[in-house]
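Item description
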Amino acid sequence: MSENSTQQESPNLLSGLIILGIGSIAMGVLFVLGGLGLLALSYVAPADPALADQVNPAPSAILLFTLAAVSIVLGIGTMRARRWARALQLIFSITGLLVMILCGGMSILIFRVIINSPESTFGQFYSAEEIAAVFPVVVVFSVIGVLVPLAYLLFFRRAAVKATCERLNPQPDWSDRCPLPVLTLCKLLLLSAFSMMLLVPLSSSQTTAVQGFPLPAALGLAAAFILLTVEVYRLRRWALWGAALLVLVLQIFMLAGSMAMDMSAIYPPELVVGDAEQLTSSGEMLKTFNIVVTVLLSLLWLGYCFWLRKFFTTDNDPDD
C-alpha cells in the first residue's frame, strides 16, 4: 500500500479506532456497575441464612473493578491510536474469543444436559420450563460474546491499522520490544498472579473450596507469577519452561482438590431436595468433567509454550 492510499484510508481507520475505543470504555463502565451491584447485594441478606457465611463478593468485585480500569485505559489508548493499545487489543480479543468459545460451548452443552436430565442435581433447583426459558438467553449471550472479540480481532489485525498507529506514534514503545505471542503469555501470567492475590480476600471467607489454602502460599505464587512475567518479557528461556511447569503443577493440584471435594460442600444438605444417591451421581459427573477439561487445557498449554520457544534466547544471551 502506498503512502497516499494510507493517508486516504486513515480517516476511516481513525473513526474505527475511536468507535472501538468508546466500546472498550463502555465495557469498563459496565464492569464498574457490575462490581457496585455485587457490593450492594452483599448488604442484602441471602434468602437462606445458611448461605450468609458462604457468600463473599469481594473477589468478584475486585476482579470487575480491575477489568473496568484496564478497559477504560485501553479504550483511551485506542482512541489515541497508541501502539501498545493496538497490541493489547489484539491480545485481549484473541484470548477473549477463545475463552468465550470455550465457555459458551460448555454452557450450552451443560444446559442441554440439564434439560435432558431433569433428575440431576441442578434439576432439583429449577424446573424444566425455567431451564428451557433461560437456554435461548445463554445461546444469545454466547454468540454475542464470540462476535464482539471477533470484530476487534478482525479490525486490529489489519496491516493498515498497524501502519496508522505507527505513523501517528513513530516512537517504538514497550509493546514493540516483545513478540505479540510472548506478550500474550505475559498477560496470562499476570492474570494468574492476580488470581492468586484474589485468594487473599477469600481467605477470610468460610467457603469450603478455599479452606486450607495457606495465605503465604497464595502470596508466594503471586510473586512467582510476577517474576516469571518479567523474565518472559525479557525472553528468558528458563522463565518460559518455569511458567509451563508452574501452571501445569497448579492445574494438577486444583484437579486433585476438586476430586477430593465432598459434593455436600457445594450443595448444603438443607438445599438439596433429592436423595444422597442423586447428589453422588452428579458429583461423579462433575469430577469426570473436571478431568477432561484439565487434560485438554494442560495439553493446549504445553503445546503453546512449546511453540513459543522459538522466540526465546538462551539464558546467557544478552537482552535489551
